[in-house]
Please model this.
Amino acid sequence: MERNGARGRVVVTGLGSINALAADTDSFAAALRRGECGIGPIDLFDTQGFRTHTGAQVKDFAPLSAIPRSFSRRRMSRSDLFALAAAVQALKQAGLDPIPAHLRDGMGVAIGGGAGGLLEAEAFFQDYLRRGAGKARFSRLAPVNCASSANHLALHFGLWGPKTTLMTACSSGATAIGLGRDLIATGAAEAMIVGGTEPLSRLTFASFNALQAVDPAYCRPFSGNRAGLTLGEAAGILILESLAGALARGAPILGEVLGYGVTCDAHHMTAPDVGASGAARAMRAALADAGLPPEAVDYLNAHGTGTPLNDLMETRAIKEVFGGRAGKIPVSSTKSMHGHTLGASGALEAVVSLLAINEGFIPPTIHWETADAECDLDYVTEGARAVAPGVVLSNSFAFGGNNTTVIFGRYREGQGPHG
Model:
């Protein structure tokens, strides 16, 4: 299923991110290279009584400095503000600040997410319990749905192209990128703002604690003593354009979306299929879509949550797809630094993948402590490597067995997608 060559080439012209490590992509790249940890005590809400009190929280976020004053912030959630701030960054890098009037008709939005305005809804409910129904401050209640961010982006930037929201749990942001690629490649859109956004909230935090899926300290992906994930919050935004459109306006080309694959485990609502067939099929589908052999992949950005079963499953899937070469491919989980940002994770790690291509380094897996006989790949545990990957495969595996793999490549001139 080699869609890319038939439907046209789609490139990335802008990146934006808000996360626990940094408030912009330049600082994010520097933090990743240094192997910094954004995990620490949470102060957004009271964590007393929970298994863990840590997370990858965005600290000192200042919407007034990140978002133009001309944009209305009324009824916008923390999640919406993350997405808008990251989109402003990405559009500026793409040379689309402001967006030309002639492009707005064909420019759309595809955003993945989950919790939406849940943090604000929790604050409203607490106010309701304290003050009563007649005195609770309704202004604190932002829309409690993941569609809100896509709506705000389309409204604030005046975009008239396709607009959609995807909710496939932790693969949402990655799937939004794949959909945006297809909309452009098939001519349904000229350009797309794509990505994901997710805030921390009490309910999400409580749910993962109840599942005993969180590490009391910090996540340790692929380490033999791993004990769970660390929740985080973030937004990751990409600007996608047709290659022809990007070249016509002299846009910076940061990379190419070479292919993606989407599969379902049909196995369990929360547990991964340790047989790894769904994850392996997603990677194979992405390679087929890109028209690439497994040997072409230079770096694999793993889903790598730090839970015992997920890391084992992903390692098995990588071995199944890459065979004898599996141990020679650098594999790292940057969730060890920025936490698991759920619906935003696939988009945030797409930003990581493109920063690796453009900045010429492979980010490390930090917090690795002990060997696991079954997780025995090259997880880049010694620190960042000064290697410039040309092709990066990024995995996102989610609750409900939702699997998405996206492949990015360095832009090369020529007729084919890979030069």
Observations:
- Residues 1-6 have pLDDT under 50 and may be disordered.
